[in-house]
Design brief:
Strand content: 35-45%
Shape: globular
Order of helices and strands: HHEHEEEEEEEEE
Distance between the termini: 59 Å
Radius of gyration: 18 Å
Helix content: 10-25%
């Protein structure tokens, strides 16, 4: 064990973290901002994009009370998108699978390019979204 620890101490930091930085995001330090993909949501960046040089992104999303979704169909050009609901509920509709109610503790993996829309949500909705890459294009779609 000591040999491993000593070996670890002498490695350059860049090779230890494989081109990623160590980061921690605390709720009391984070700020929600209105700038994001959807105006009816606020976003709190968790620092993952900066730590991974844009390879991954993660943020907490919460509903802006009183604002509703226009339920517009769209898709994203990304490799990975996972949503985990921490509070409230949201209804998503996915092409080919219909509407799904996600509530506290629900998790969905949205495959790359799947056409979907956010139909409605509770005013207290809060969720975590993890994506790769951090920056991606969103395309307006029509359901087939």
């Amino acid at each position: 064990m000591v040999l491993v620890r000593e070996h670890w101490r002498h490695k350059p930091v860049s090779s230890l973290f494989q081109n990623q930085a160590f980061t921690i995001a605390h709720a009391d330090d984070g700020k929600f901002e209105g700038k994001g993909l959807r105006p009816f949501f606020e976003y709190r960046d968790l620092g993952i994009s900066a730590a991974t040089k844009g390879d991954f992104g993660a943020h907490v999303i919460r509903a802006v009370p009183g604002m509703e979704s226009p339920a517009a169909w769209h898709s994203h050009d990304l490799d990975f998108q996972m949503v985990y609901v921490t509070k409230g509920w949201v209804v998503f509709e996915y092409e080919g699978t219909g509407e799904h109610v996600l509530r506290e503790g629900s998790c969905v993996l949205q495959p790359p390019g799947i056409k979907h829309r956010e139909v409605r949500h509770s005013d207290d909705l809060e969720l975590i979204e993890i994506i790769a890459p951090a920056d991606f294009a969103t395309k307006d779609e029509t359901a087939s």
